[in-house]
Design goal:
Layout (H helix, E strand, L loop, with lengths): L16 H14 L8 E2 L1 H8 L3 H13 L3 E3 L4 E3 L4 H25 L2 H19 L3 H18 L3 H8 L2 H14 L3 H17 L2 H26 L1
Antiparallel strand pairs: 1-3, 2-3
Length: 225
């Protein structure tokens, strides 16, 4: 596939430049404005965002930490996921998220539960208004809250290296998966079982959620072939 040149300039504020730069790039990759396999140089990113080479480099490094960008001998490129990649990502994600749920149930606080329920309410509002961008953000927020509740910083770090592909796959699923209520019910069961301290039910809910997500992701991949 021929990759279009990066020519459009996106305006971003100079306050918290690094954060904004990688968020804009992440969004462009997720929305496939920047395509899988596309080459990304510091010069291209600097021109695209109207920023200097240093914040452009920082943004690319952040995306690489999150596995949205990979470095090859000649340059950095946006990830291209194969069917096998998706299956392998979910195998790892399942194992790590089940572990995070087990720890979250034991180590949760009342404040943790309140934050989870608040994020779930935000997801419900996004679904009610069919706000796809907010839906994707709240989906990821719920998972990040659960990861953080594990209080296992090494586990949290490992899960954060998967954020890029997870973010992309959530967005792709949303494009082809119209039963948002079913997705909400899965997250609702997950949140409530964690908050109630029911570890077996929470683990089962997480396993079911990841199984469904894998199926939707593979469907999206096959449709895009």
């Amino acid at each position: 596939m021929t990759k279009p040149p990066i020519t459009h300039i996106y305006e971003i504020s100079h306050a918290n430049l690094k954060q904004q730069a990688w968020e804009v790039l992440r969004d462009l990759i997720v929305r496939r404005v920047i395509l899988p396999g596309q080459k990304l140089t510091e010069r291209d990113v600097a021109k695209l965002l109207g920023i200097g080479r240093m914040p452009a480099r920082d943004a690319l490094m952040k995306l690489e930490e999150q596995s949205l960008v990979i470095t090859k001998p000649d340059a950095r490129y946006v990830i291209e996921l194969s069917r096998r990649d998706i299956e392998d990502w979910f195998e790892i994600r399942q194992a790590l998220e089940v572990l995070s749920v087990k720890d979250a149930v034991v180590r949760r606080s009342e404040e943790d539960g309140n934050r989870l329920r608040q994020a779930l309410q935000s997801m419900g509002a996004a679904i009610a208004h069919r706000n796809q961008e907010l839906y994707v953000q709240t989906d990821l927020e719920i998972h990040e809250l659960m990861w953080n509740m594990s209080r296992n910083r090494h586990l949290i770090d490992m899960l954060h290296t998967m954020i890029g592909p997870i973010f992309v796959l959530i967005a792709i699923q949303t494009n082809i998966q119209h039963d948002w209520d079913a997705v909400f019910n899965l997250h609702s069961a997950l949140v409530e079982t964690i908050c109630l301290g029911d570890a077996p039910a929470a683990i089962a809910a997480m396993q079911q959620h990841n199984a469904d997500s894998l199926a939707w992701s593979l469907t999206a991949f096959d449709d895009g072939e």
